[in-house]
């Protein structure tokens, strides 16, 4: 077992899981001092830093980390006119990092998130838990009352159909937050002192047909399985909303995962979310979204994808057409967003030509 | 606050929640010594004991409990020919207790289940947690990543539609088990030493459209909302299967709850399941069910109820017709079961005439 020996006195294995197959994507506008606390867990991995805001500002990254950093000038240079699909002055810009990654897996984290402790007081290796979640199957077709049946000490309970026990490949691992919960502006305003102190020791699959509010603060996914659907939309500068970037991605991702029989897990790992954002600023950003989501969610709940859509790209293009047709009636913003969804896929395929071959599945490309 | 004062040194309030609105239903074949451990929590409530097997056997109930006890002779006397729908020599007989209860709520528990301890070492008042679950709404239409949003210290997360935050009435509270998990015979055989030691501090709603394996060991429900669907089927003596009684009820209940926009919760409370049943005996009972469930579950996943079905009774009769038509092809057992489902509803309405009035909604009855 050379290479996987655990360093005495440390819970970090000497060869971390998926070291060469996972990128950590961090959107930021400031120096990345928060990485110091994550050093034991993140240092072995490659970081993709997406700098938002003023590109002339210099972002300091603590020494010893292996990273590439992209600012707005880089995004514009790399994508040309297609850069229009990447949000500016909003953490939605992180999805550019998903696009330029060359790895199978991505973990993305906000720079105000720190290492949390489990109830025994031990530091939680969030990344390791995400990797466990992604590498074990999901159970989207039937609910298991003892939660993740693939965890040690757990299994499928009586009455769980045996034909479903192989599970489905896991595309997404959605982690949670201790301390500051991910509340919307109205809830922040009503409950300014609420803190999440409940450590729920569970990972579970969100059942097929059920939507969920996906938060981008602590999120990992399999790029190969679902990457092209992880578009964080048009938010921030010049757009009528913010703080719906991850929600948008989550709705699209879940509909596509359901169609392609892929799994989405939520629960562990927790991280420590240090600081509540300003609820007044948030309300301004969320305001229109609060109304729109009342129509958007039924739209996604009823969205179906044609059988021919057998790749994430095809699914996403089909969704963009439905967005334009059905949500375009609510506000012209959704027409623009639908167009940006198409641009995103074009840009993705341009930067990931081998994906595109698989995706398009056309004879010529496949014959290469 | 007279009457709700807590006895010093005790965590049991002097007036327990729903004291006069809840019955505890216990199926048994032996003396109920297990009640000693539950005394602080159960003694204030009324018990309905359903004695299975030889009716001449005398079941001892510890002193101080308020109870009524029914044996097979009583069931035959009360239901006459309709007693055929109540299973014999199987804990499925417990559903007779649901039928004769006159209370709004029922909690049912197996007699090999004891008080569990939470991670802090405190005895868990399972009944109190079930009541909390039943008295607070469910969230079947959208998933909340921080679990039950109505619990103290929790709420709906960002992105949860505001129109859905009122929730749906909770019809069922499904509790879990520490120590011996509720495994089927094959899993028991493969993992004879597995014990459930993971205390997951969560209650969550099983989303609309998702089926789950409902276990009858630790279960509470609102009789008024869902009682007539809590039929535990034909099991045991003279029947080709056993150990699918609660599963059958769970599938029917979930389909009907989804149709009527009622909620089903699972998670807390835990109890301590003391003893694994014999896996060889279990395999004999489960054998046919293991095959049948592969067809039964898709059947229930695709079952739809007509809009006219606006009461549990009407829903249940419609389901019985679909069972006869579609599952009857698998085995004649399902034709018999479908008939028993109808008999069950007839017996329920006979013993619960005021329910029947509400249920039938006919002018004459309503005019009373």
TrEMBL record, chains A, B:
* Sugar-bearing residue positions: 158
Q: What is its EC number?
A: 5.4.99.30
Report the Pfam families cross-referenced here.
RGP (PF03214)
Under Gene Ontology molecular function, one entry of this record is: UDP-arabinopyranose mutase activity
A biological process from GO: plant-type cell wall organization or biogenesis
Q: Which InterPro entries match?
A: Nucleotide-diphossugar_trans, RGP, RGP_fam
Domain of life of the organism in this record?
Answer: Eukaryota
| One GO location term (cellular component) | cytosol
Q: Which UniProt keywords apply?
A: Cell wall biogenesis/degradation, Glycoprotein, Golgi apparatus, Isomerase
Q: Glycoprotein among the record's keywords?
A: yes
User: Localized where?
Assistant: Golgi apparatus
What is the uppermost EC class here?
A: isomerase
Q: Which reaction does it catalyse?
A: UDP-beta-L-arabinofuranose = UDP-beta-L-arabinopyranose
Major site of localization recorded for this protein: Golgi
* Sites marked Required for activity: 158, 165
The keyword Glycoprotein belongs to this UniProt entry's keyword annotation: yes
Function of the protein: Probable UDP-L-arabinose mutase involved in the biosynthesis of cell wall non-cellulosic polysaccharides.
What family does this belong to? Belongs to the RGP family.
- What is this protein's name? UDP-arabinopyranose mutase
- To which species is this protein native? Triticum aestivum (Wheat)
């Amino acid at each position: 077992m050379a290479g996987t020996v655990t360093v005495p006195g440390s819970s970090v294995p000497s060869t971390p899981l998926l070291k060469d197959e996972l990128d950590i994507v961090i959107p930021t506008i400031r120096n990345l001092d928060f990485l110091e606390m994550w050093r034991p867990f993140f240092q072995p991995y490659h970081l993709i830093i997406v700098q938002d805001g003023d590109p002339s500002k210099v972002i300091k990254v603590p020494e010893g980390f292996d990273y590439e950093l992209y600012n707005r000038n880089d995004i514009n240079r790399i994508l040309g006119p297609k850069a229009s699909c990447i949000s500016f002055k909003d953490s939605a810009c992180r999805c550019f990092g998903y696009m330029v990654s060359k790895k199978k897996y991505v973990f993305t984290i906000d720079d105000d998130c720190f290492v949390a402790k489990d109830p025994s007081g031990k530091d939680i290796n969030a990344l390791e838990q995400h990797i466990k979640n992604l590498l074990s199957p999901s159970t989207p077709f039937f609910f298991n009352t003892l939660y993740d049946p693939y965890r040690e000490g757990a299994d499928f309970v009586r009455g769980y159909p045996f034909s479903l026990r192989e599970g489905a490949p896991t595309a997404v691992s959605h982690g949670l937050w201790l301390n500051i919960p991910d509340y919307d502006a109205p809830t922040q305003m009503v409950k300014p002192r609420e803190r999440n102190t409940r450590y729920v020791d569970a990972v579970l699959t969100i059942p097929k047909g059920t939507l969920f509010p996906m938060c981008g603060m602590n999120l990992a996914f399999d790029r190969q399985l679902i990457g092209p659907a992880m578009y964080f939309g048009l938010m921030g500068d010049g757009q009528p909303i913010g703080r719906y970037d991850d929600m948008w991605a989550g709705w699209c991702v879940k509909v596509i995962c359901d169609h392609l029989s892929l799994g989405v897990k939520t629960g562990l790992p927790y991280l420590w979310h240090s600081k509540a954002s300003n609820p007044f600023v948030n309300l301004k950003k969320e305001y229109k979204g609060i109304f729109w989501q009342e129509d958007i969610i039924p739209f996604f709940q009823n969205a179906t994808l044609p059988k021919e859509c057998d790749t994430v790209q095809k699914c996403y293009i089909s969704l963009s057409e439905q967005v334009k047709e059905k949500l375009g009636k609510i506000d012209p913003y959704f027409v623009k967003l639908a167009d940006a969804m198409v641009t995103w896929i074009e840009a993705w395929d341009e930067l990931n030509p081998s994906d595109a071959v698989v995706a398009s599945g056309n004879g010529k490309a496949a014959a290469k």
